[in-house]
Amino acid sequence: MRPLTTREQRTVRIGAAVLGIYLVALGGWKIARFCERKRVEYTRLVQEAQALKQQIHTYQSKADAVKKLMESFKLDPARLSRTTMVAEASAAIQRAAATSGIAVGPIRESPARQGNKELATVQLEATGPPPAVTSLLGRLETLGFPLIIESVQMTAEPMRPGAVKMSLTIVILDFDQWKKEEAPHA
User: Fold this and answer.
1) pLDDT per 10-residue tile (average), the chain, 186 residues
2) The pTM is what?
3) Measuring CA to CA, how many Å separate 89 from each of 13, 35, 62, 94, 169?
C-alpha cells in the first residue's frame, strides 16, 4: 500500500469529520425524538393522575358528607334489618319518650300504605309537660332510624294542669325502596 499524500489525508479527515458529524446529528435527532416521546407520555400520565385525584377528591367529599350525616342522625343503614326495623324503631321511640319524662299511652303500628316507600306507620299518644314533649320531637331525628313525623296534634290535658296530650303519627321509611331506580329506556 502506498502512503497517502497530504491532500488525501486531509480529504479523509474531512470525510471522517463529516461522517462523524452526520452520525452525531442523526443520533442526537433520534435521542431528541425519544426524549420528546417520553416527555409527552409523562405529561399525559400526570394529567391522568390529576384527573383521578380530582375524581377521588369528589368521592371523598361525598363520603365525608354522608359520614357527617350518619353521625348527626345516628343512622347506620348497614345495621338496619328490614324484618325487625319497625319493632326496633317503636322501642327506640318509647325509650326516648321515657327518658324525656313523657308518659306513653297506646301505640298502634299499621303496615305501609300501598304505593308508598315506607315500612309502617306508628301512632302513639303521650302525655307530659310541654318542654318534654318538644324535646321528644327534637330527639326523634337522632334515634338512628329513618323516621318522618307525619302529624302532631297537641291538646291541653284537662286532668293534669300544665301537661299536654300529644297524638303523634310517625312514618318509618324503607331504604330499599328509596334506592335510585333505573331510568326508563326511551
Assistant:
1) 86 90 86 92 95 88 81 68 74 86 86 73 89 86 82 86 88 68 53
2) 0.53
3) 98, 66, 27, 9, 13
